[in-house]
Protein 1
Amino acid sequence: MQAWADQARAGAKRIGFVPTMGYLHEGHLSLVRVAKARSDVVVASIFVNPLQFSPTEDLARYPRDFDRDRAMLVQEGVDVIFYPEAAEMYPADFTTSVQVSKLTDTLCGRSRPGHFQGVTTVVAKLFTCVKPHLAVFGSKDAQQALVIKRMARDLNFDIEIVIAPTVREPDGLAMSSRNSFLKPLERQQAATLFRALRHAEELIALGERLPQKVINAISDMIVRETSGAIDYVALVDVNTLQDVKEIRGQILIALAVFFGKTRLIDNILVQAP
Amino acid sequence: MQAWADQARAGAKRIGFVPTMGYLHEGHLSLVRVAKARSDVVVASIFVNPLQFSPTEDLARYPRDFDRDRAMLVQEGVDVIFYPEAAEMYPADFTTSVQVSKLTDTLCGRSRPGHFQGVTTVVAKLFTCVKPHLAVFGSKDAQQALVIKRMARDLNFDIEIVIAPTVREPDGLAMSSRNSFLKPLERQQAATLFRALRHAEELIALGERLPQKVINAISDMIVRETSGAIDYVALVDVNTLQDVKEIRGQILIALAVFFGKTRLIDNILVQAP
């Protein structure tokens, strides 16, 4: 991978990079298109990173279909698929970690201890393997995007981090590989997540300034319309990810909800009037 | 720095790198010569890294003399001196760390909690800033060399890590910027450290197999001949840095001794017969 990257760079090619855990959907492909539009050559990686799953999480059952993924990436005109083995990425005496503090204490970081350390460690490794000029991440994983931006800046990675918009199903559900786990009724109910976020946006547009009121409105809607178990609903500062005390300026509204064992996340960025 | 590195790489120049904390001595210059012999262009950095000093350590009084350092590096034919400001390396919202576990629990890591996390974090940053093909470290800091090698391998840095031999004063004292702190009598006594290591080597050559016997011999000599306070004397496995139970094969003998507030370290690699 590094030899290929060196050669591309020697030929003055701009390398775009889309890291994925595979089981691709339209959301991933939209990231590939963003990368293609802004680079000369595009690398996509497929690696289900064991470090970012806790022992109680869904590593073993995480969906995988390399042949399908490869066909989709070839179709999109990706130049290289980087597809390392876990044993190659993490040899037996692997003992290094990359960690971003503070930004990882809230939201998904609170619910999934160690998750973001696994993410930043593997992304740092993927960056040094692929040597891209630009890397594209999805804004469905808003906290991940912010954490990776911070990591890249703090460690002086000479890589432009691009955050691309969330791609949604026709009913508004954010695309996710984990959607494939949903039973038909859960899948139907899951559309409520985005509708609840849109409802919150309306409340704010209408002048609501109290975060707790908005959180309650979102939570009520999810409880009323779905069988999901709320992990968190939060209104946070878009730079620090700390809970806001008053709704002003740009606010990130983020939520995580379990449908059975399947944990879905979504978020929107709103601008208070 | 990155723009310069990109240009050097575009011109197919091999970049050698010697990171330092300045206040250079012959030991640093020997690293520069190793880098020069194996590269087309050489970068030396001078950065007294606050992250690797604990609040009780000697950051404020660490010796600095940029003009002298610059003259010495120019004399050696270094191409670039990278000399960043602390505020530039660590902006106010800097929250990322790079950490190597296990290897950092022993020896200097036990005495200086957080030290190696500071080292690996800054070295990762220097690597992404300078983009070298090869980086040279001194073997006086044996644990640091091993920790950096591990970090570079684990994070897939495409950089050859070269460990160069310790340069010594005529009486055997390992060169160190901190030697400048020693009072004349301490300076004279400090030569005992290397003599004690050589004595240990002789004992092993003569067939000693019990680590504690060798540790005692080193410690006795230091106590008898100096006013220094021993931090540690250890015989460790050269790959894991764990204490050895029996002297066999390659062994690292390492020590740290305080002369007043000044902490000196030294080590030798011995091959048991």
Protein 2
Amino acid sequence: MGLGVGLIGSGYMGKCHALAWTSVATVFPDVERPRLVALADATPELAQQQALAFGFGRGTGDWRDLVADPAIHVISIAAPNQFHAEMAVAALEAGKHVWCEKPMATSLEDATRMRDAARRLGRTAILGYNYIQNPMIRLARAIIDEDRIGTVNHIRLEMDEDYMADPTERFYWKSEEASGYGALDDFAVHPLSLLSVLHGRITSVVADMAKPYAERPANDGGTRSVENHDIAQALFRTEAGASGVLMVNRSAWGRKGRIALQIFGSKGSILFDQERMNELQVYSTDDPIGLQGYRTLLAGPPHTPYRQFIPAPGHGLGFNELKVIECNELLQAISGSRNAHVIDFERGLEIERIVHATARSAQSRGWVDL
Amino acid sequence: MGLGVGLIGSGYMGKCHALAWTSVATVFPDVERPRLVALADATPELAQQQALAFGFGRGTGDWRDLVADPAIHVISIAAPNQFHAEMAVAALEAGKHVWCEKPMATSLEDATRMRDAARRLGRTAILGYNYIQNPMIRLARAIIDEDRIGTVNHIRLEMDEDYMADPTERFYWKSEEASGYGALDDFAVHPLSLLSVLHGRITSVVADMAKPYAERPANDGGTRSVENHDIAQALFRTEAGASGVLMVNRSAWGRKGRIALQIFGSKGSILFDQERMNELQVYSTDDPIGLQGYRTLLAGPPHTPYRQFIPAPGHGLGFNELKVIECNELLQAISGSRNAHVIDFERGLEIERIVHATARSAQSRGWVDL
Amino acid sequence: MGLGVGLIGSGYMGKCHALAWTSVATVFPDVERPRLVALADATPELAQQQALAFGFGRGTGDWRDLVADPAIHVISIAAPNQFHAEMAVAALEAGKHVWCEKPMATSLEDATRMRDAARRLGRTAILGYNYIQNPMIRLARAIIDEDRIGTVNHIRLEMDEDYMADPTERFYWKSEEASGYGALDDFAVHPLSLLSVLHGRITSVVADMAKPYAERPANDGGTRSVENHDIAQALFRTEAGASGVLMVNRSAWGRKGRIALQIFGSKGSILFDQERMNELQVYSTDDPIGLQGYRTLLAGPPHTPYRQFIPAPGHGLGFNELKVIECNELLQAISGSRNAHVIDFERGLEIERIVHATARSAQSRGWVDL
Amino acid sequence: MGLGVGLIGSGYMGKCHALAWTSVATVFPDVERPRLVALADATPELAQQQALAFGFGRGTGDWRDLVADPAIHVISIAAPNQFHAEMAVAALEAGKHVWCEKPMATSLEDATRMRDAARRLGRTAILGYNYIQNPMIRLARAIIDEDRIGTVNHIRLEMDEDYMADPTERFYWKSEEASGYGALDDFAVHPLSLLSVLHGRITSVVADMAKPYAERPANDGGTRSVENHDIAQALFRTEAGASGVLMVNRSAWGRKGRIALQIFGSKGSILFDQERMNELQVYSTDDPIGLQGYRTLLAGPPHTPYRQFIPAPGHGLGFNELKVIECNELLQAISGSRNAHVIDFERGLEIERIVHATARSAQSRGWVDL
């Protein structure tokens, strides 16, 4: 009998969690099928409807019901960011394992509280950094680990979308200061999670944040000042001695789900773009002179765990399937594996610290050490 | 209470069906969750193990158990091709709906028998042509239907993989004459299904089939003659007046899951490659002079039914998710929708006829009319 | 003192020849600067104006003046195709070397006459197949010669542009039967020249030719029937045992200067597209499993003779510079080099034979042997 | 009779100038053919040899000979950077027009002196910023000017090559402090010239410079400390209100001639990469919903002055041909045109100021205003 699952939130990422919980045992032969016990959402009606749609046993308007249910062993948190800390700490304290969507929390204090609870209570507590689960990202790590591109000395990270790019769209909560720094906490955590997995820690940063549009149309027919920043960018240095640049922009017309990496080493380099998530480009000076060039690798059975999804190469995984891989890693972690490929609350807090240091640098107009 | 499902076969495509049946109700809010009643495979042991893994109620070594089970309303056939006809006809005669993997059958007689049974018994009977379910292919159809590229006058279709490309690999059943023509029936049905959906019927064809390797290493240490063709190619004309070329190659080093379309019309053109399945390229002469060029469209919420999977654009669907879409279309067809986007046995038989006419042309060295 | 040069024709390709003659000695350090003696065009006025513009000593309305001028050692023929034979034979008979634009002639008889004259008179006589001069095509040949992709077993050749793609454009001489077969002789010679250099001879062919538009607007306000074919396609076999497809289309909206090659071998493959003429894609099974993919090579100093133009890699050569390379090869051939990389009248006639055999096949609706 | 030309320096860029002077009148019909009067290089022997190779009337070991020659009206300076100022000022004072390679000079003082001389003496004095001459860059400017992407609010500039990427290569003068800042002055001027043309002035900058390799093998068998920086990166703000990032790296394995632009506006965006210099990518929100995507434009006759080189689209210009365009613009400027598309010493000095401000910021670890 598999673990009992509770899911809080059934919107964008909640559905993604539900799909992962539903599919994980079909995809991974060693996984015992989880039981989808209960789903919580804002109202009982919505929760019941979504429980039915997603195949959960029951729905509830109160997430604390899940925390209190002994049939539930692990809780997926896909609720609005400001509730993450309270939910995660309560779940951990009730002895549940926690799978929490990123960003971890809306303040460093909350994130620290979550990390402390995870440490104290010894349960598995991970964050939903699904992009690290891409077989091509794992391949990138293997390429670096096997020293195929030598010592990494320069890194560029970009994440861009265009959902805030239209200046004629009405002001909504995403532009309120209360919702956070803007692109910095919306996006930066993603490339930073990749950096964490592929390279290591940032030690210092200098940053700038910008508003492409100072104001937006308001509901009352007038305009309203935009309170946070749709663009952020930072120069950084890493513990391992590399220099780098981080760029995020949620008002970048034409970009839909771009997360672009450029990683340069002493013997080669690696390129990746999430918009072509099934490809990785590698340049190696081991190739003969005159025959060196970026090699476009297509995801296939040699790239773990692609084979579990499709036995033929080049057929393509999707964004949602990264969550299925993540779910399997979570289950490995819960079952005690030391090699589970996850970002736990410990490492998640490090990522949050970089985000906040970046914001401080943008405010102070100077370098900030971490 | 959703429909009862039986699955025959739990290999490559069987797993793909299982994932689709598991996920379809989570993805599509209007779908009642199907009940995974039973799974059949070659032996009871394998079937029981796979039933457990895939979440089916029971496993059986005899597919006729599924046909006889009144709790099963629809049967997925993902068994070896030579059994399709017998299984499909038996299922239809037992009043089940049928979802059968392609190719339809290994002979035109069998395919005709299947079509006749579907006609006679009035059940929903469709084929697993999942590539037509790609939102970008549907977008291509919409672009053509809306006359954005004008009258289509020329089409090029390619499907290439490299799983037979290594001449040092041992002879196995795929190279036996008994397994079929080779690349022609392995591959050609896929681009032909896209042609059927996007353009219409082929009326005449002249073809050639080739063996890149005349023999292969045999198990006994000697060599064995290859009996069918890893490469096939044909020139064709269509009912709508277009000329075209069909090319398939299962020994094409470097190609992993390429299904490439080039569709030229009197006002523009469309390009597609399954290896980048989330992209479609469109050239339109409606764009201003000097600003005309191929536009790379990334799959997103405007492209039905992408939105059901992910609310954000450019995040990427995977190969397996096409099967989920297909499953939903099947359910729409079963519930009586006239607009279900499927290839039924009627149209499937047309595709088989083209395959066999192509083979005849390669043998007769002349044009063959359809 | 360098060779004396005469140029017949100062349009599109005439200008391209003039640029090559002007630049060749600056680019290639071993080349003695040619003397631009005289230019001939349709009228004396035009010829004098163009001679001044292109830096030739004098202009003449009679191309026979060039043939008669003892100061001229080599004659560039960039006049309309129907005059090639007469001009080339006269020039050869006058003891000149000849550099003639392709296609060689408008009939097989004329082409044979040209070949015979070149044989008989022992002068250097080459055709302007500039695409073979691309360093990336030479690289492709080296890759094949060094057995990096093994034995070539399948080839696809495409050449497409869109200058005849607009059905609303008026009928003009390009659509007259007298101008030739259409796309077949406009385009096919280019990919066939590449095939000749990279692989070898075609031995049999089956073809189809198509008209995307049966008629076009005429000057008188009515319409006029199109007399030749904007689309041609053929299946072929080669002496070396490969199968292949040739596709040409001059009404392919969106294609501007596409000449695409796909060459598959027993150990790898090569892709090329003239629209990205500074790139070559190579797939090699010598790369480790899991790290195999198409490598995009950018033209640079290792790729002869790129270094003569630019010492830094990846900066890009242009179409016109291929003619400069060709000019240098012509000069090498004239000076007696056996290794000059050119298509002489002998090999040019072979290409013409393929074109005419293809046309015959399209008419007879059957395979034609060469 | 055209202008008399003197050329100082016959290496990489000297040859490029020679080709431009040789070809410009053939390409551009309105240009009077320049007379290649004399070439100067380090020794008389080298100069005479190169004069012969490049078609100049004579060679000299003393560049002042050119300055003194009344038959020379314009002087190309392609000598080492530290001599630019002395040569340019002397030439201007002798009444010559000056075409000087970039970077302008090795110190801000020298660059200022050059600018002052150009102002004072009223001759045409331009810098060899050839990348701005690319028809696709001009197209980008037209797209911005025509408000097709709206108000530009974010810009990313990258220039990367790999000629310093190999850590096993011996220390040579490029790594000496005396040679300059490193990548910053080697590369940054190029993307900054594009920024100047496409957008406008930078007003503030914060920067970092990095050494991928602290030391390199020395000729004596030991190692030697690297004295400047192969990597530089900066955040910036512009007068027009945009934010941006500048990144340059001359040790970026795999990059050969990358100059990548990303320009985001309120209605669309533009992408460019010099490694595919005949392409421009444009995203426009004027396209219909569901049909928006980056359009890849291929250089062709609508993109001035492509048509002067080749009448057919998509055939491709090369790096050297940008210099021919620049030469024509220089001649237009000399003949008094106000619309010549050049970077004169005035604007060149602005670019130098940004370079030096960037270096100061990297040293002071803070923002620097311009």
Protein 3
Amino acid sequence: MGREPNGQDRTTAVKEHDAPSSEPLRTKKREKAGDQDGKISGKALGRTVEAFMRLPGIGRKSAERLAFAVLGMPREEAAGIAQAILDLKNSSRYCLVCNNITEEEICGVCRDEKRDRTVICVVEEPSNILVLEKTGTFRGQYHALLGALSPLDGVGPEDLKIDGLMQRLKAGGVIEVIIATNPTVKGETTAMYLAKLIKPLGISVSRIAYGLPVGGDIEYADENTVQRALQGRREM
Amino acid sequence: MGREPNGQDRTTAVKEHDAPSSEPLRTKKREKAGDQDGKISGKALGRTVEAFMRLPGIGRKSAERLAFAVLGMPREEAAGIAQAILDLKNSSRYCLVCNNITEEEICGVCRDEKRDRTVICVVEEPSNILVLEKTGTFRGQYHALLGALSPLDGVGPEDLKIDGLMQRLKAGGVIEVIIATNPTVKGETTAMYLAKLIKPLGISVSRIAYGLPVGGDIEYADENTVQRALQGRREM
């Protein structure tokens, strides 16, 4: 299994996401909420509401609920949350082999001798590895690209961790690559690009299935999904 | 406006909620999630997932999403969240007059000279004050009881901040008390108890209205709510 020679930016801190374009508006909203809440329930509370609103999916109401929950916690527990956030930023890095999040040079999955080294599952983000691991069905290795191809946003192959993947494949031993990028235009583009690159190496390339989500209602599925579910039908 | 003579426990830190009875089970679940995630994506991430799961309404999946969001934040922003949590616990206290959350002796609402001092709105928790303030319709004072009567849980009148309320009322100047405790059995019990206590002082006591939530569908409302909405009907 080859390491990337050009691993310079991997040993540094985890990549920070660019602020989305709506950031100035969101900042304004946050500051307003923090100010208003601060006037009513103290500045410390207002600042905490503002801080929590920086997290994805946390609006003003949730942020207020969380802030009051922290207020009602034992001091050590609240301090524990604060410390965990600091530690996370300070000690997490990308695995030198697969770009998973880890505190060591090589992540737990890559170090695990019992895992199948003949299959690599390619994902967009390290967080996807967590999702796949929780199914408990995949026992191979992973490779996180740290993004997906998006020509419109100026994200090309050189912006993804594709070199490292190719080196791992060229080092030999891998017989199948499962591409588990997102079921989106970007993810699909990336999957097709990778398939074209990997197939000439004589390695089998597969794509995870599209279809109806388990527990979903066919009535609410969009046409594309239903079409894919039909195409992907399997004999029972 | 009288201050509470027995204000000793108010100048100390904000009351910490007792752990609910399901706490051992929740702790186990949190630790398991933290361990599993820690094995896959590093211990720092596992600990942060565990920490976020301590917050209300944050399950494992949300905690993981938040942890990866923190990981993708600029370092100062993550540190800001951690600091806000610490500051909140260290500098927030109860207002000596109304038990709102504040960083001063007396909260911003109580200090505001422009507010109507003839009306006091009684709520269970300081967080309720934030909700009422956001409506922008109430310009009087507040009083947070820091709980509600619950004989089954052993919570009696002496466990609530009722003494302080009565002293404010006896000091004179208040002509109406609006009871805005929760529309639950506990809140209702508390409302009735307070009404009995306050009415002899010659002060008008009102209860916030029960009815259909705005934007709700009558089809999905429970019978009790519909019954209350009918009883509370107003001429158009």
